[in-house]
Amino acid sequence: MHNAATPPATTSSVSTLSEYSGQQKGYACNVVNASSTVTDEGFSDYISFAMPMHDASEILPLLHDAMNSKIDIFDKLGEASTKAEKHQKQAFDESRRREKAEEEPILKEDKEALAMENGIIEQMKQEMDALKRDRYDIIDKLVSEQKETLEQQVDDYGGIVKDLEDTLAASKSLIHSQKLEYEKLKHERDSALKDADELHKEKEKTLSSCLSLTWNTEFTLLEVQLATQNFSDVLKVGEGGFGRVYKEASGLVYEFLPNGTLEDRLACENNTLPLTWQVHTRMIGDICSALIFLHSNKPHLIIHGDLKPANILLDANLVSKLSDFGISYLLVKSSTMSISLYQMMNPRGTFAYMDPELLTTGELTTRSDIYSLGIVILQLVTGKLALGIGRAVEDALEKD
C-alpha cells in the first residue's frame, strides 16, 4: 500500500474595501483593510493606513489597481491550487487504483488459497466424521458380536453348569447308594466273619476230635487189602527208596492228596493251570513251617534229607505237605559240638538239591535241608530247572 501525499492547503482571503466617512478633526477617512494569507508562499501581509480625505482620490485608483492585481494573483494561485489539488487527487486515486489492481490478484490468490484450505479442512473434517462414524459402526458391530458371543458362552456355560449340577446330583445319589451298599456289605461281612469265626472254631473242635480219632485209628490188614484192591499196581501212588513194603504185619496209612506233587504242577502236567504268585508264596510258608517243626522236634530233631518238589504234595486246597521220609534221620545233639550232625559215608538224596558241604564232608545238618529249600524257592520264583539254577541266578544278578 502506498499513501498519497496530501496536497498543500491554499487559503486566500481578501477583505474588500470598507469605506466609511466620519468627521474627526476635519479629516475624511477611508480605511482599507486588506489581509491575505497564502500558506504555500509562506508570507502574510496586513495593510492598514489612513489618509486625509483630499488624497483619497489619487491613491484609491492606484490602490484598486494594486488590489485587482493582487486579487488576480490570488485567483491564479487559487486556480493553480485547485488544479494541483485535482491532479494530486487524481494521482492519489490512480495510485489507489493501481494498488487495488495490484492487490486484487494477491487477494484473489489469498482468497483462493483460503478457499482451498477451507475446502481441504472441510474435506478432512468430512473424512474425520466418516472415520468416526466408521469407528463407531465397527465398535458397535464388535460390541454386538462380543455381546452375542458372551451371551452364547453364558448359555453354553449355563448348560455346562446344569450338566455338572445334574452329574453332581447323580454322583451324590450314587455315593449315597454306594454308602448304603457299603454299610450293607459291611454288615454282611461282619456277620460272615462272625459266622466264619464260629465255623472255624467249630471246625477246629471237629478237626481236633477227628485228628485224635485218626491218630488213634487202626486199620486191619483186611481193610487195607479191600481199600487197595489187594495192593493192586493200578491204585499204587508211588514207591519209596527202600522198595515195596507189603508183607509187614503193620504199616502206616497216609491221607490221599488229590493235586499231586509240586513238581507236576510246576511242569503243568495233564494241562493243569500255572500256580499264582499268591499260591507260590503260601507254599514257601507251608514248607518253612514244616521244616521248623522237624528241626525243632523234641527230644531229637529230624532232618528230611531229600527235600525237593517231587516230595512236596498238594491237597485239595493246594496246601503243601512234605512226604517221603525214607532217608530222614533223627539227630542227637553232641555235648562237645555246637550243632547236631550225622556223618554219612555215602550221602543219599537228589544231586541237584544236595548241599555241597554234604557232598564234600559227608556231614548232614539242618543246613542241608535249608539249602534244598533255597533251590525249591528259586524254582518257584524263576520257573527254571534245579540243575544249574544257582549259577543262572548269580549271572542274572551280575548283569543287573
Automatic annotation (TrEMBL):
EC id: 2.3.2.27
Reactions performed catalytically: S-ubiquitinyl-[E2 ubiquitin-conjugating enzyme]-L-cysteine + [acceptor protein]-L-lysine = [E2 ubiquitin-conjugating enzyme]-L-cysteine + N(6)-ubiquitinyl-[acceptor protein]-L-lysine
UniProt-listed PROSITE patterns: PROTEIN_KINASE_DOM, PROTEIN_KINASE_ST
Molecular function via GO: ATP binding; protein kinase activity; ubiquitin protein ligase activity
Domain Protein kinase: 161-400
UniProt-annotated stretches for the region Disordered: 84-104
InterPro entries per UniProt: Kinase-like_dom_sf, Prot_kinase_dom, Ser/Thr_kinase_AS, U-box_ubiquitin_ligases
Pfam families: Pkinase
Gene3D superfamilies from the UniProt entry: Phosphorylase Kinase, domain 1, Transferase(Phosphotransferase) domain 1
Record key words, sorted: Ubl conjugation pathway
SMART domains from the UniProt entry: S_TKc (SM00220)
Enzyme class: transferase
Protein's name according to its UniProt entry: RING-type E3 ubiquitin transferase
The species this protein was found in: Sorghum bicolor (Sorghum)
